[in-house]
């Protein structure tokens, strides 16, 4: 039995087929965030956000690392996922007003929900292109 060469793409597309995961990607398009900030913006429990992030991480769309006891996440730098993400942004334009509210709320938080001293000084989110 041979493995299906389309399986990674199918898994990635299945992962993208959820509104919460799309909102997370849109948030991270503006810059890295602490998981607690993502949870606050989405109004979800951190454990629920972590489950969504697990799928995004498994497909190579996001990366995460610890800063002290806080987990930070960002879009992956992987060349394999960059074309998919670049194709995704225009498709999400219909939800731009809601996504802009999410980004503004995340920017206003600035790690207030976690320990501000744990955040790197380069934590200024960039505006999406």
From TrEMBL:
SMART domains attached to this UniProt entry: HTH_ARSR
Stretch forming the signal peptide: none
A Pfam family: HTH_5
Residue ranges of domain HTH arsR-type in the record: 1-95
Alphabetical keyword list: DNA-binding, Transcription, Transcription regulation
CDD domains: HTH_ARSR (cd00090)
Protein name stated in the entry: HTH arsR-type domain-containing protein
Source species: Geothrix oryzae
Organism placement in taxonomy: Bacteria, Pseudomonadati, Acidobacteriota, Holophagae, Holophagales
């Amino acid at each position: 039995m041979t493995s299906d060469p389309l399986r990674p793409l199918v898994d990635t597309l299945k992962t993208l087929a959820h509104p919460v995961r799309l909102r997370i990607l849109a948030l991270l398009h503006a810059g890295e965030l602490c998981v607690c900030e993502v949870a606050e913006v989405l109004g979800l429990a951190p454990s629920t956000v972590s489950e969504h992030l697990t799928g995004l991480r498994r497909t190579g769309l996001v990366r995460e690392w610890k800063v002290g006891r806080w987990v930070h996440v960002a879009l992956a730098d992987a060349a394999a996922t960059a074309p998919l993400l670049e194709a995704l942004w225009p498709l999400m334009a219909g939800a731009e007003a809601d996504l802009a509210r999410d980004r503004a709320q995340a920017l206003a938080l600035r790690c207030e929900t976690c320990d501000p001293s744990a955040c790197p000084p380069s934590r200024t989110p960039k505006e999406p292109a």
